[in-house]
Amino acid sequence: METTWTLEEKSQGSLKVVINGDKWKEAQDKAFNKLAKDVELPGFRKGQAPKALIKKQIKEQSILMEAVDMVATDALIKGIDEHQLRLIARPELGLDALTADEVVLSFKLTLEPEVKLGDYNNVQVKKDEVSVSDDDVDEKLKQLQERFAELIVKEGSVDKGDTAVIDFEGFKDGVAFAGGKGENHPLEIGSNSFIPGFEDQLVGMSINQEKEITVTFPEDYQAEELAGAEVVFKVKVNEIKVRELPELNDDFAKEVDKDGIETIEQLKNSLFEEIKTSKTKEADEKAENELLTKIVDGCEVEIPEVMVEDELNRTYEDFTNRLTQQGLNMDLYKQFTGQDEQALREQMRPDALNKVKVRLVLGAIAKAENFNTSEAEIENEYKIMAEMYQMDVDAVKKAISADALTYDLTIRKAYDHIKKSII
């Protein structure tokens, strides 16, 4: 068995394996015996007829193709071992020659690409300084006020910022259209949650007043039959509510219900620390992303398309799962955004490409720095994950292989190593 490896572009190449002589003859004999078991001839039990008679019933091509199946896996393994190849995708098998004397197998392989690292140890970035102002705390307090605000019924007419509780029904060319009707719908004036122009025409209306409102749907509206159409909504105001903010005092601090918070000053101090923690995290992430970008940009690597497609599939699947968790599905999302799957995947492609490149570069850094992961570290990580997900350690091991965990831990070491360059 002779093997030849030829590297082509983007980590793709061809592994040719020539099999002849006794090994190929033996494979054909085994193939014949396997096929012979299913041959039925009159006067003989299945597979029990004389070999000469059975041979007349089996085409030589069938024997050769069955023999190929028997030797292909061993041929691939031998080629991978001899040339020390690391595959990242399922091989494609082709036949360059097939006779009773010899078979030439051709495997199209995609390998993990080689990364030419730059001077990653001398790349530095400076983390933004973190500061928290009184205005930051006041803004956070205002957000809390809004969260704990109450809607109080008011008299008079609808103003900007009020919430009008309305009945409405939409008509196009005098005919009611699907999805255009609602009862006792609370609509905050100025939220821009309805068609442009709708909310403005509610301003000045009073309780129990009815009115016809004419608006035009946007040209890019998801429902084609309404896109760009002029419609009339019959509207009735049932109730008008105004948002009443709570006073910023000790009672409000207690209502927020934070552990150990009894006074407004304690609440402000707590918010100060929350903002500081959040800004510190943002500064860390910004610096880390900047550092990664600089290091990756300083490296050279040709990324096979199959790696990008695999990452893109994972990204798309994660996105659809998040939609499901939010009570949506991909069909609804496509209707709302007007995007089809292909457009969405193209939008995700740059991020998928970057993820692959970052992973490859970190893997190359781990190799360059001789980072290894011990069995003790792997076992400890399994215990941490078991506690995190409240699962038995054995269950975690079944879900996540030791090889996958080893890879993740090694990449993490490489990431921690380069983060030392943040000043």
Tag the structure with descriptive keywords:
single chain, 423 residues, alpha+beta, Alpha-Beta Plaits, Chitinase A, domain 3, Trigger factor, domain 2, five-stranded antiparallel sheet
Short account of what is shown:
The chain is an alpha+beta fold. It has helices at residues 21-36, 51-57, 60-83, 134-147, 250-256, 264-297, 305-325, 330-337, 341-368, 375-389, 393-399, 402-419, and strands at residues 2-7, 12-20, 92-98, 102-110, 150-153, 163-172, 175-188, 210-216, 230-244.
Could you explain the architecture of this structure?
With 423 residues, the protein is α+β, with helices and mostly antiparallel strands. The chain contains 12 helices and 9 strands. Helix 9 crosses helix 12. The protein starts with a strand and ends with a helix. The model has no long low-confidence stretch (mean pLDDT 90).
Structural class: alpha+beta
Q: Compute the separation of the termini in Å.
A: 57 Å
Q: Assign the CATH superfamily of the largest domain.
A: Trigger factor, C-terminal domain
Order of helices and strands: EEHHHEEHEEEEEHHHHHHHH
Beta-strand percentage range: 15-25%
Mean pLDDT: 90
Main pleated-sheet profile: 5 strands, antiparallel
Radius of gyration: 34 Å
